[in-house]
C-alpha cells in the first residue's frame, strides 16, 4: 500500500487506537518505510508461528520471538491466539555481508499475521517490528491491525564500541548485540586497538596483547564467539586496528617500530598522543603483514578499519630520518607519508580480499576507490569523498559519548534533501555509525550511554528521511527503551547500582528520593568538558561519581521545557495551570536540593559533588519562580531584574567540578525573558513573539550549536 | 589467634565499630572459621595490591578485586590508600579438583592488609572476604581491623542448576558462577539431560540434541567456555546425565533403547515419567559408551553424575523381555537390574578415569566404594552410605526450588553434632549442594530463586557447625545480596522487569506502590504446590505470573513476625509502641489490598491473580487488628472470637489459584492466640507463656515441618 493512502485509513483506525489518532510509525522504532492501519486494535493472545522453511538464524529468531512474546503476553488462556505465518524466499549467507536484502512485509489482523521477506534477515527485522507493535498495559496486551512494507534507507547501520580506552568484556558486547538487533542495526564496529589498550589476541605476535592490554583483551576464541553471536542476529562485525597513530599500545611491545625511541608504557590519560608507527621502517610492514593477515583470517567481514586518525605529526617532525625519507621520496610532507603508509596497508588488505576503511584523514587523491571513508568530520566532508567516488559512512553527529540529547543525533542527516550530490554520488553514502568512545564509560555505565539514544540514530539510518518529528521520536524512544531492557540491556536496570556508589549499600535512607530527583534532572556535561573539569580522572580511576550516575537526555528536564513552551508560546494568554505546575515543580526541586546539601552531603561523602548543582538548582528555581510570579501578576521584570536573573542562570551553568549540568537552565532562560518582554506578547504574532523572547534570553546571540 | 581470645578483643573493638558490639563473623558470608577484631574501624581509600608471584587465575581475581573495590570506594583522593600484600605458596592446577587447599589468612589494619594462602584458590576466597569487610554508606567507606584465619568445613560446596526442564543459556550460568565465587561455592553441578530436554551437544550422536532439545543446548565450545570461566574462579563443573530414568529426551531420537516401544516426544509436563532406558539391550551400552566417552573427554572433572533417580518401574514391569532377563540373571527384581546397569556404567566411567556420582537410588551393596551418593533423601540416608564407606554429598534440605525461607536451609546440617558416625565415616560426607530444579524458573527469575538464599547454604557448607544464629544470618544475607548484584546476579535488578509483566510497560501508574507492597508480602507457595494449583502450566507456558514476580523469604513478613514476637514475648507487659506499629502496618496493608482489588485488577488483567491474596490480606489484617485491640484494651478474645479468627486465617491460607501465600498468617495466628490467652500472661513464666500461645494458635497441633 503506497503511503499516500495512509491518511485515509488512519482516520478510520484512529478511534480504535487512541483519542489522539494513530501516529504513522505506530510504536515501532525505527519507523517503518510504509505502514498503514487496516482496522482497530485488538486483544493479543499467545503466538503460534508457522514457517515453510527454516535455518539456524531464523529458528533462533523465532525462538527469541516466542520467548519475548510469551513473557509479555503471559499465560492468559482466554485471549484468541495469533497465528504468524513466516515465509522467506531464500537464505542469506551464514555470516552476513554488506547489502543483503533486509526488506520485509508484515500484515497483522485479528488472529492472523503474515511476515514475508526475501531473506531471513528481513524476517528478523519483521519479527522485531511485530514485537514492538505489541503493547501491554491497562486492558491487557493488544495489537494494531496494520500493513507494513519496510526496508532500510541505508545498508550500513552501525554501532562502534571502543574497547581500547575502557575495556568492555564479552558480556557487554553480547548484550549490546542483542539490543542492536531490536532497532535493526546491522554493523558492530569494534575499535580494538588504542593508545590505552591492545584488545585483541595475536597468535603471531602475542607480545602485542601481553604487554599492551593489562590482560584485558578478546581471545581469538572470544572473537569467533562474537562473530557467530552477531551473525545469528544478522549483524556484521567490522574490526578496527588504529594505525599509524593512536598506537601507543602497539609500541609498548615494539618500541623499535615507533617513530621516536622508546620505551613506552600503556597510556593512562585521555587525549591525542604522540606515539606513531614509523612508515619508513620495513619492520613495521612486516609486523603488520603478520598481524593483519592473521586478523583477515579471523574476521570474515569484507571490510577492515585501520583508523588513521589524529596523527599529530610530533614524532614524524622530530625524527630527522623520517623527514629525510619524505624529502628523498618526493612526498608532500607528513600527509604524503601517511598516504604512502595507507597505500602499503591497503595492498596488504587487498591481498587478503579486504576493503580498507579509515577515518577522514586517510582520504587522499591517491587512495584507491574501493577504500571507505568513515567520517568523524561531517556530512560535508563525506560529500567530498562521495564526489571523489569513494564509499563513505557518517559517524560525525552520532558521537554518543559526547552526551548530547537524542534529538541532536536524530536530526543529523547523512544525505540532506538539498544535498548537491548526484544520485550516483549519493549511493556512495552507505550509512552511518553511532560511536561509543570509551573515555567515560565502564561496563556498568556503557549501556546507559548507548541506550536508548542510539535507537534514534538507528531510526535516522533505517527510516525515510522525512521521519523527523522530534516529540514523536521521544514518545517511541520511551517505549523502545523497554524492548531494549527485555533484550538484555542494563541501561535502566543499573540505575540503583550507580546510586549505591554514591550513598553506599542501603538505598532505604532519608533523602534518597531527593537525590534521585536531582540525578534525574542532571546530565553529564557535553562534548569533552568532563576531561577539563575532572583532570585527575584517567583510565585507572573508577567511574562511580555523580557524573556517572546521571544520564544523558534528562526526561523531566525535557518535560519541564515543554511546559515552559506551553506557558510562553501556548496561545495568546498565559496558561495558568501550566504556570502553576512550573511553580510547584520548582518548589519541589528547591526542597530536594536543600535536603541534598544538608543532611545528605554531610553524611555521604560521595554526595558532596552534588552540592554545587543542588545550589545551582536552588538559585535557578528562585529565578524561575520570580518569572512565573511576574507573568502571573502581569508585571514585567525590570531590565535590571532581567539582567540579574540572566546572570544568576549564567552562574548556575558554570562548570562546578561535578561534570554535570542542568538542562533546565535553557527553558528557565526563556521563561525569564518572556516575563521581561510580556508587554509585547499581545501585540506580536507568534513568530515575532518567539523571536523576541529568544533574543531577550540571549542578548549576545544564541550559543553555538553542538 | 585462637577463637577463645576472640571475645576479649571484641570488647575492645566494639566501641570502634557499632554500639551493639561487633558480631563475630563481621559482615562476611560465609562467616570465617576464625575472626577477631584487632582495632576500631577505619576509613578505606583506594586499594594498592602487591604480589610476589601470579598466575592467570590470581591475576584475574586481583583484577576483579581492583574493579569492585574501585567501584565501591570511588575516587576519593583524600582517604589513605590500603596496601594489600598477597602471598601464595604454590599454584593449583588450571582446572581445580576435589580437595584443593582453599585456606587463607587475612589481616587488615589501617593502611596495610596481608593475605596469605597455600594456593591461589585460598587467595581468591580471601579477596572476596576483604571485599565483604569493606562497607560503604554514611561517613564513607570503612574497614574493620581484623585478623581472619579461614578454611572451609567441607570440600564440596555446590550449586546444581537444572538446564533440562527450563533451558538456561550461557549467560545465566556465567553470572551465577560469578555469584558463586562471592560466597565461596566451588562446584557447579549441571543437570544436563532430563525428560524435558537434552541440553548438551554430542558429536558422536548429534541426533540426541537435535531431536531432544528444541535447539536449546550447550555446544561443546560452550562447555569449554564454561569450564574455563569456572576454573578461573576456582569452581569445578560436574556434569550430570540422568540415566536410566528421566530419559524421555534420550529416547526421542533413540526409541529403540527405551524399555517400551515408542515413538516418544520431548516431555512438556512436570512430574515423574515412565520412559527409561533398557538395561537389557546391548545397544544401550553402546550408545552410552560413545556418549559418555565423549563427555569424559569434554569435562575434565574427576566426577561424573549419572542421576539414577525416580525410575518408577512402569516400563520395566510392562516389558516381558525385561522381566524374563531379570529372572534368568537371578537379579533381585528391578532394583537388581538398576544395580547391574549402574555397574556397567561405572565400568565405563572407570575406564575413562571417572568416579560415578548418583542420587540415593543408586546405592546398593554391590556399588563400588569409589562411587559417590548425592542424597536427595537426607542426612540419615547419607549417614548410611557413609557407614557403608561411600563418599556422599547432601542435597536434601537444600532444595531451593521449593521456595522455603533461607533459615530452613541454613539449619540443615550435613553432619549433626550428635551424629552416630565415627570420625572416619564423617570424612565421607564431602559437603552438599543447593539444587535449582527448573520447573518454575526462567532466565528472568532464576537468579531470584537462587540468590540470596543460597548464600545461607554456602555458609552452612563453609563455616563451622556452631555458626547458626538465624537473625545474624539474615543481617548478613541482606549485605551479601548487594555483593552478589555487583558480581552480576540479576536477582534484585529484575524486580521491575517482573512487575512489568503484570501491569505492562509503564510503572508510573496509580496503585503501583500498593502492588509492590503486596508483592513484597507474598511468597511463592512451597514444595510442589504450584504444580497442583496451576495445572495448566508446563514447559511452554511463560513464567510471568504473580507467583513469578513474588520472591521466596519475604523480608517485610519476617520483620512483621519479629514485631509480633516483641509484642507477645518481649517482656512481662505488652510493648505499646510495637503494638501500634503492627496496627499501622495492617492498616497500610488493607489500603494497599483494596487498591489492588479495585481499580488495579480491573484495569490490568494480569493483576487479577492478586485479588484472592489481596482479599486474604484484608481478612487477615482485620483479625490481626482485632487482636491488637483486644491486647490494648486487656479484654481477651472470647473462645468463639478466637475460633472465628483462626478460621479466618485458615481460609486466608487456602490455595487461591495464584500459587502465592502470605507468610504473615503464621505470626497473626500467634497474635490472635496471645490476645485470647492474655489473662494467663502475668502468671506464666516466659517458656510456659510461649507454649500456651503456640498451643492456643494450633489447637490441633503444629503443622508438619517442611
What's the short version?
Chain A is α/β, with parallel strands linked by helices and 706 residues long. The first copy, chain A, has 27 helices and 17 strands. Chain A folds into three domains: 3-150, Chitobiase, domain 2; 160-487, TIM Barrel, CATH 3.20.20.80; 495-697, no CATH class.
What features would you describe in this structure?
Two copies of one chain form a homodimer. With 706 residues, chain A is α/β, with parallel strands linked by helices. Chain A folds into three domains: 3-150, Chitobiase, domain 2 (2-Layer Sandwich); 160-487, Alpha-Beta Barrel (TIM Barrel); 495-697, no CATH class. Helix content of chain A is 44%, strand content 14%. Chain A is built from 27 helices and 17 strands. In chain A, strands 7, 8, 9, 10, 11, 12, 13, 14 and 15 form a nine-stranded mixed sheet that branches. The first copy, chain A, has a six-stranded mixed sheet with strand order 1-6-4-5-3-2. In chain A, strands 16-17 form a two-stranded antiparallel ribbon. Mean pLDDT of chain A is 93; it is low at 1-23. Chains A and B meet through helix 2, helix 4, helix 17 and helix 18 of A and helix 2, helix 17 and helix 18 of B.
Amino acid at each position: 500500500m503506497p503511503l499516500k493512502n495512509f491518511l485515509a485509513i488512519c482516520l478510520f483506525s484512529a478511534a480504535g487506537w487512541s483519542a489522539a489518532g494513530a501516529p504513522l510509525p505506530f510504536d515501532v522504532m525505527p519507523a517503518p518505510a510504509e505502514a498503514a492501519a487496516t482496522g482497530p486494535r485488538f486483544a493479543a493472545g499467545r503466538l503460534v508461528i508457522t514457517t515453510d522453511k527454516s535455518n539456524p538464524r531464523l529458528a533462533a529468531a523465532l525462538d527469541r520471538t516466542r520467548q519475548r512474546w510469551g513473557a509479555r503476553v503471559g499465560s492468559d488462556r482466554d485471549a484468541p491466539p495469533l497465528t504468524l505465518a513466516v515465509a522467506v524466499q531464500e537464505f542469506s549467507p551464514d555470516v552476513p555481508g554488506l547489502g543483503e536484502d533486509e526488506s520485509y512485509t508484515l500484515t497483522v489482523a485479528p488472529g492472523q499475521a503474515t511476515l514475508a521477506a526475501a531473506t531471513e534477515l528481513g524476517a528478523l527485522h519483521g519479527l522485531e517490528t511485530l514485537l514492538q507493535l505489541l503493547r501491554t498495559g491497562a486492558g491487557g496486551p493488544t495489537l494494531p491491525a496494520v500493513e507494513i512494507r519496510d526496508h532500510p534507507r541505508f545498508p550500513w547501520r552501525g554501532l562502534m564500541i571502543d574497547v581500547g580506552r575502557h575495556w568492555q568484556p564479552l558480556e557487554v558486547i553480547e548484550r549490546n548485540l542483542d539490543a542492536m538487533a531490536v532497532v535493526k542495526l546491522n554493523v558492530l564496529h569494534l575499535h580494538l586497538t588504542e593508545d590505552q589498550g591492545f584488545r585483541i589476541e595475536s597468535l603471531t605476535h602475542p607480545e602485542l596483547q601481553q604487554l599492551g592490554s593489562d590482560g584485558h583483551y578478546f581471545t581469538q576464541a572470544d572473537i569467533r564467539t562474537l562473530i557467530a553471536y552477531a551473525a545469528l542476529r544478522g549483524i556484521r562485525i567490522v574490526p578496527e586496528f588504529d594505525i599509524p597513530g593512536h598506537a601507543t599500545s602497539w609500541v609498548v611491545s615494539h618500541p623499535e617500530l615507533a617513530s621516536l625511541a622508546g620505551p613506552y608504557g600503556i597510556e593512562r590519560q585521555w587525549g591525542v598522543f604522540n606515539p606513531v608507527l614509523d612508515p619508513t621502517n620495513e619492520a613495521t610492514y612486516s609486523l603488520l603483514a603478520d598481524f593483519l593477515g592473521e586478523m583477515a583470517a579471523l574476521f570474515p567481514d569484507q571490510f577492515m578499519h585501520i583508523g588513521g586518525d589524529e596523527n599529530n605529526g610530533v614524532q614524524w617532525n622530530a625524527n630527522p630520518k623520517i623527514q629525510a625519507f619524505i624529502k628523498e621520496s618526493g612526498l608532500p610532507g607528513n600527509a604524503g607519508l601517511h598516504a604512502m603508509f595507507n597505500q602499503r596497508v591497503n595492498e596488504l588488505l587487498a591481498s587478503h580480499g579486504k576493503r580498507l576503511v579509515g577515518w577522514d584523514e586517510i582520504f587522499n587523491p591517491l587512495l584507491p576507490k574501493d577504500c571507505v571513508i568513515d567520517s568523524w568530520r561531517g556530512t560535508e566532508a563525506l560529500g567530498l569523498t562521495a564526489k571523489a567516488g569513494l564509499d563513505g559512512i557518517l559517524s560525525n553527529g552520532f558521537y554518543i559519548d559526547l552526551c548530547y540529547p537524542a534529538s541532536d543525533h536524530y536530526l543529523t542527516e547523512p544525505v540532506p534533501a538539498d544535498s548537491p550530490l548526484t544520485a550516483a554520488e549519493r549511493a556512495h553514502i552507505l550509512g552511518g555509525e553511532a560511536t561509543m568512545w570509551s573515555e567515560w564509560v565502564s561496563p556498568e555505565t556503557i549501556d546507559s550511554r548507548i541506550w536508548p539514544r542510539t535507537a534514534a540514530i538507528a531510526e535516522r539510518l533505517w527510516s525515510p528521511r522525512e521521519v523527523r518529528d522530534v516529540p514523536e521520536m521521544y514518545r517511541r524512544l520511551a517505549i523502545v527503551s523497554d524492548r531494549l531492557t527485555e533484550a538484555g540491556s542494563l541501561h535502566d536496570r543499573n540505575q540503583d547500582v550507580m546510586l549505591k556508589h554514591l550513598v553506599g549499600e542501603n538505598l532505604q535512607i532519608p533523602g534518597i528520593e531527593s537525590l534521585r530527583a536531582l540525578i534525574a534532572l542532571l546530565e553529564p556535561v557535553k562534548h569533552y568538558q568532563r576531561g577539563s573539569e575532572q583532570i585527575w580522572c584517567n583510565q585507572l580511576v573508577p567511574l562511580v561519581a555523580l557524573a556517572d550516575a546521571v544520564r544523558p537526555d534528562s526526561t523531566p528536564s525535557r518535560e519541564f521545557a515543554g511546559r515552559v513552551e506551553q506557558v510562553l508560546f501556548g496561545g495568546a494568554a498565559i496558561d495558568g495551570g501550566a504556570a502553576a505546575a512550573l511553580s510547584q515543580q520548582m518548589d519541589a526541586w528547591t526542597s530536594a536540593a536543600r535536603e541534598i546539601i544538608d543532611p545528605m552531603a554531610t553524611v555521604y561523602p560521595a554526595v558532596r559533588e552534588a552540592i554545587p548543582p543542588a545550589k545551582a538548582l536552588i538559585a535557578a528555581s528562585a529565578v524561575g519562580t520570580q518569572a512565573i510570579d511576574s507573568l502571573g501578576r502581569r508585571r514585567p521584570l525590570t531590565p535590571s531584574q532581567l539582567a540579574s536573573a540572566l546572570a544568576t542562570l549564567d552562574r548556575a551553568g558554570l562548570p562546578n567540578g561535578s561534570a554535570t549540568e542542568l538542562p533546565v537552565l535553557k527553558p528557565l532562560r526563556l521563561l525569564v525573558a518572556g516575563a521581561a518582554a510580556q508587554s509585547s506578547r499581545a501585540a506580536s504574532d507568534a513568530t515575532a513573539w518567539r523571536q523576541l523572547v529568544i533574543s531577550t534570553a540571549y542578548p549576545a546571540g544564541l550559543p553555538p550549536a553542538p
